[in-house]
Design goal:
single chain, 2 domains, 7 helices
Length: 141
């Protein structure tokens, strides 16, 4: 970890900076990750309305039907950030659909369409492990 140049930073300032960094580490904050700029991750709704719509139009014959199906079936997830939607969220949704009396075939069909959306999300750069630059390159061709 770099605190600063020795000819500019005094010993007291260096100690104070080191204390602040150690305090962050103690609280579980990675000082190197904290310096990196935060990428803006869209909500599922924003993703569906933007990048996924472009992708679906180019890659799916039934894109309009699939977009409507995703927005209707996964209404509870629309306002969640893409990087915060977990497998547990999908399983909770699935359990709710079963409780509503939907057939497993219908539920699996919705999940299959949604799975395509999340895979496209990774390719379009919304996956938390990819950089925004990679996503822009893929989305803009």
């Amino acid at each position: 970890m770099w605190l600063g140049r020795a000819d500019v930073l005094g010993v007291a300032e260096a100690r104070e900076s080191a204390r602040a960094i150690l305090s962050d580490v103690y609280r579980g904050i990675d000082p190197i990750a904290a310096r990196k700029p935060k990428l803006e991750v869209p909500t599922f709704r924003t993703f569906l309305d933007g990048g996924y719509t472009m992708w679906a139009k180019a890659n799916q014959k039934a894109h309009a039907q699939n977009l409507k199906r995703l927005a209707t079936a996964f209404k509870a997830l629309l306002d969640k950030r893409m990087d915060s939607i977990t497998g547990l969220d999908i399983e909770r949704w699935r359990a709710g659909e079963i409780d509503r009396g939907l057939s497993l075939e219908t539920i699996n069909r919705d999940i299959f369409v949604d799975q395509g959306g999340f895979q496209a999300g990774g390719r379009l750069g919304t996956d938390r492990d990819q950089s925004a630059r990679q996503g822009q390159e893929i989305a803009h061709g």
